[in-house]
Every structure is written in C-alpha cells, then in structure tokens.
C-alpha cells in the first residue's frame, strides 16, 4: 500500500530502510556486552552447580537463548527498528561468549 506525499507523488513502502551507523554500532556493543556478562554469570552458575561435560554446554545454550529473548523483549520485539537483521540479536556474539563461559565454568569447578 502506497501513501501520498504533499507533492502528490507516491512513496514506495518497499524502500530499503536506512540506519544510523553510530546507533547500530552502539546497539551491537550492548548485545556483545550483554552476552559476555551473561556468559560469565552462566559459567559461574554451571561451575557452582557442578555441571560437567555436555550438561555444562547445555547450560550455555540455555543462557544464550534466555539472553536473546531478553534482548528482543528489551527492543520491544521490533528488532528491525534497532538492528538490520534478526541474526544480529540471535547469533552475533554466540561463540565469543563461549570462551568466557568455559573460563569461568572451569575455574569454579576447580575451586
């Protein structure tokens, strides 16, 4: 459905949305910091609870899923207003947080 401008020209709704690069970069920093923080917290919890082997990695996947849902809820479930794709919230930083998780997970198991 097209709308009319003041000049009588029709504007197309299929236009590519534009993003402010600084705002997009700031939003991505928030995603990375949130994932890193939650990875550390999840690693400490998995270590304290004594999860070993595959169960520890299941905890990591659950923590990352909860983090993704919380970030999406924080954005008001309108991801395209803040990011250029769903992958930015759901997948970016997933493996980067894994290193922090394993570090704190194994540290708490050893103590």
The largest β sheet comes out as: 2 strands, antiparallel
Our estimate of the beta-strand percent is under 5%
Question: What is the rounded distance between the termini?
Answer: 62 Å
Strand order of the largest sheet: 1-2
Mean pLDDT: 81
Query: SS-based structural class?
Result: mainly alpha
Please write the string of helix (H) and strand (E) elements.
EEHHHH
Note poorly predicted spans: 1-6
Explain what the structure shows:
This protein is mainly alpha-helical. It contains 4 helices and 2 strands. A two-stranded antiparallel sheet has the order 1-2. Strand 1 and strand 2 form a beta hairpin. Helix 1 runs antiparallel to helix 2 and helix 1 packs parallel to helix 4. It is elongated and about 55 Å long. It starts with a strand and ends with a helix. 20% of the residues are buried. The N terminus is likely disordered.
In short:
By secondary structure, the protein is mainly alpha-helical. The chain has helices at 21-49, 54-74, 87-90, 94-110, and strands at residues 3-4, 10-11.
Keyphrases for this structure?
single chain; 111 residues; mainly alpha; 4 helices; 64% helix; elongated; disordered N terminus
Task: Give the topology.
Layout: E1 3-4, E2 10-11, H1 21-49, H2 54-74, H3 87-90, H4 94-110
Antiparallel strand pairs: 1-2
Helix pairs in contact: 1-2, 1-4
């Amino acid at each position: 459905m097209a709308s009319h401008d003041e000049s009588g020209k029709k504007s197309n709704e299929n236009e590519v949305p534009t993003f402010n690069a600084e705002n997009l970069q700031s939003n991505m920093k928030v995603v990375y910091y949130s994932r890193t923080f939650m990875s550390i917290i999840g690693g400490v919890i998995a270590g304290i609870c004594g999860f070993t082997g595959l169960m520890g990695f299941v905890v990591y996947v659950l923590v990352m899923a909860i983090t993704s849902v919380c970030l999406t809820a924080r954005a008001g479930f309108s991801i395209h207003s803040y990011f250029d794709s769903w992958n930015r919230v759901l997948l970016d930083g997933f493996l980067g947080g894994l290193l922090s998780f394993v570090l704190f997970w194994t540290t708490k198991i050893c103590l």
